[in-house]
Amino acid sequence: MLCLQENPAVPGIGGNNIQEFQARIARFDQAYVVDWNTWLGTAAINRPHQLGVVLRKWQACRPNRMRRTQSVGGHNPPYLEHLVAQSVPYIQALQTFDIRLAASFSQQACAALRALWEIFEQLSFQGRARSGLAGVVGISKAVLLLSDGGVGPAFDSQVRGHLNIATINSANTWIEALRVANQDIHTFEVAQATTLQHAAPNYAHLQSGRIYDMALGPGE
Question: Is residue 2 assigned to a domain?
Answer without folding.
Answer: no
